[in-house]
Design brief:
This protein has one domain. The protein is built from 3 helices and no strands. The radius of gyration is 20 Å and the shape is elongated. 18% of the residues are buried.
Length: 131
């Protein structure tokens, strides 16, 4: 028996779920970087690298806020959105995930920049035997 085609609602729900998972993974990675930078800020080591840890901590928090904003404004996370028998979702965000690809490039570029910068900073500190 051939598979029935997905309805637009099913496709939308599936895309919402995929974006939600992806944003959750970004949030987890940002949180890990925030912990590492916070640990660095709590030690006297960071004074030797000027203001970089403070700036990374600030920028990572801003990026985390952007991820949360995207989740809130673009994804339907209402529990009933996942129920396939519904024809519509009660939350107005349902279907707005389609705008995420355009915003995703900005988010990904900023995340990559911050992640690379944090890794370079930590590697530098390790090479100097400061960590």
């Amino acid at each position: 028996m051939p598979a029935l085609p997905y309805s637009p609602v099913d496709q939308c729900q599936s895309a919402n779920q995929a974006w939600s998972v992806t944003l959750s993974l970004y949030e987890q990675e940002i949180d890990l970087l925030l912990v590492q930078v916070a640990d660095l800020l709590s030690s006297s080591t960071y004074r030797s690298v000027q203001h970089y840890p403070e700036q990374y901590y600030h920028d990572l928090n801003q990026l985390r806020a952007l991820v949360q904003q995207l989740r809130h404004e673009r994804l339907c996370e209402h529990p009933t959105c996942a129920m396939s028998q519904l024809q519509t979702c009660p939350a107005p965000q349902f279907g707005l995930h389609a705008t995420l690809p355009g915003l995703w490039t900005t988010l990904t570029d900023e995340f990559t920049r911050l992640k690379n910068g944090c890794c370079q900073l930590l590697t530098h500190l390790v090479n100097l035997n400061l960590l």
